[in-house]
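Supplementary notes for students who missed Thursday's class. We covered one full example, reproduced here. Read the sequence, then the structure, then the short commentary at the end.
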Amino acid sequence: MASTTGSKVQVGDVAPDFTLSTQDGKVVSLKDFRGQKSVVLYFYPKDDTPGCTAEACAFRDSYEVFKDAGAEVLGISSDSVDAHQKFSSKHRLPFILLSDKGGSVRKLYGAASVFGLLPGRVTYIIDKEGIVRHVFSSQLAAERHIDEALKTLNAAR
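Structure (token representation):
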């Protein structure tokens, strides 16, 4: 069972809007996707660490499946635009990485941290209307975030 403990934003909530810079230096807002696509919004601790790389590459490898399900994948960490650009390029990531310097969006969502120190790994599935349909939090089972997201998207179809 997925843990939602410590998560401020819960299933059934309207996902809070935010605007952040992408790995390409463009500006993206969550509201840009409303009425268009579902969003798989995943918070992760840090670019180029083993667990985060495994998670990002698993999202990459399933990206076409997410697109077919009518969803866009957005990854968020506090890394800089520059760091995201290098990480994205190195691992050929086809989806958007967003730079949340200072962690304001992470705080807005209440995305859990581990022992109050390390940024947690939390995934939110947001439908086309902007409603949170699923929250999954697991620091160690990085690849399970992809399975959980796909299961939720497929159930909604």
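Commentary. The chain is about 30% helix and 25% strand. The longest strand covers residues 71-77. If anything here is unclear, bring it to office hours.
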